[in-house]
Amino acid sequence: MARPTVTFLGGVREIGGNKILIEDGPDRILFDFGPSFSPRFEEYYVDYLQPRSTAPVKDLLEFGLIPRVEGLYSREALGDADLAWRPPEISGLFVSHAHADHAGYLRYVDPEIPVHVGTGTKTLLDAIEGSTAMHYGDHAWRPFQDRVPIRIGHLEVVPYPVDHSIPFAYGFLVRTREGTLVYTGDFRHHGPRAPDTHAFLEAAAAASPAALLIEGTRAGADRRRNLSEEGVRAGVDGLLADRSTLALACTYPRDVDRLTTLHRAAAEADRTLVVSLRTAHLLATIAPHFPAGAIPVPGTTDGVSVYGRKKKRYYNWEKPFLDDAIESAEVARHGARYLLALDLMNFPELIDLRPPRGSPFVHSMSEPFSEDDVDDRVMHNWLDHFGLEFHQMHASGHASGPELLEIVRSVGARTVYPIHTEHPEAFDAAGASVRPPELATRYAIGT
Question: For the whole model, what pTM was predicted?
Answer without folding.
Answer: 0.95
